[in-house]
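Please describe our next protein:
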Amino acid sequence: MARPQPQPSKTGLSSSKLATERLHKGYAQSMEITKVLADERSQYQQIRIFDTVANGRVMTLDDIVQITSRDESAYADMLTHLPMLEHGKVERVMIVGGGDLSIADEALKHKGVKEVVLVDIDGRVIELCKKLFGEINAKAFRDKRLKLEVADAFEYLGRKSSRNRFDLIIADRPDPVGPGKALFGETFYDRIKYALRKGGYATFQTGVPFYQPWEITEALEELSRFFPRSGLYLTVVPTYIGGYMALSWATKGGKPLGTKAGIAKAARAFKKAKLKTDHYNPELHAAAFALPQWIRKLVP
């Protein structure tokens, strides 16, 4: 999973048995480490995986928490099942980033899916997560419908082979720094539109509005330039500090997400599919579109 616009920690793992993450000026969170499992630098970033007292197994990239085994479902489930169940006939899914495969694992729970393409620029993240996050992703790695591409997702989206290919694109994009910069802004959204099938959806992490209120406004303004329908819904991921996490969506010719009819359709589909989830349920699906007044004011 991807974190929105953090400020890298100056502490890291070496100074003590605490992993300290400094996301915002004047605020930090620390986790007590019980065992360090990996600590190495790939071509792109510092990768650390360790066990903790309170949050299970954790992966950080450049000292920023990307996933914990304890709360990953609150993020992966809502980016995945919510649009898939409202769509109803998703066959091909693309995941931008997502090297831990938590999102891929959720998408592959849908029997109607024929292909899940995961495109992550850092192959070492995928290798380490296969080895150390089997509790989350072992089934996904064994599934023949999964296709792993170690590549630049921005470039991949623009390929001729990607045109009108996917029913759902999930942007589990990294922070807008370094190679991740290409996955933000209007050019990226234009490529998402290019790769979506008619009636398809795209979902994006859009920051923690308590600390990053501008992200909602900027993202929805940019999405509206390329998609006639787009919007916002919420989840809560405890280790993504700040309370609510905003998830945005856009569709290429599909119906808006979160309507009464769409929510009812998703509830029926969830029951029929007998999906086993750790976080998602139809009641949460409906509640995700209820925005507090202060967040409503951020929607352009």
Q: What stands out?
A: The two ends are 26 Å apart (CA to CA). The first strand starts at residue 18 and ends at 24. Residues 4-15, 175-183 have pLDDT under 50 and may be disordered.
